[in-house]
Amino acid sequence: MSDSYMQEQGEALAQHLRLNDGKSGYVEVTAEGFIVYIRRKFAGKQFPTWDGLPVEWRENVGSNKAANR
Questions:
Q1: Is the pLDDT of residue 1 over 70?
Q2: What mean pLDDT do residues 43-56 have?
Q3: Would you call 26 exposed, middle or buried from its count of C-beta atoms within 10 A (0-12, 13-18, 19+)?
């Protein structure tokens, strides 16, 4: 799998979770899958995979971390 493919999937996941405002959270792309950092508890049902790759959830992160600073 190419890095650009993973990056695209990470961006698609961020859009799916509406994390593209730069404040509520972001998706980190790793070699193993994705890590979702969000400021609050995720309102919907957390899903364990995205595009067949594992998703790790990290909720209630600080606002600086959620903004990926």
A1: no
A2: 94
A3: buried
What are the phi and psi torsion angles at 64 (to 5°)?
Answer: -65, -40
Tokens for 64, please give them: 């600086």
Q: What confidence score (pLDDT) does residue 51 get?
A: 93
Judge whether 59 and 42 are in contact, CB under 8 Å. yes
Q: What is the 3-state secondary structure (H, E, C) of the chain?
A: CCHHHHHHHHHHHHHHCCCCCCCCEEEEECCCCEEEEECCCCCCCCCCEECCEEEEEECCCCHHHHCCC
Q: What is the pLDDT of residue 68?
A: 82
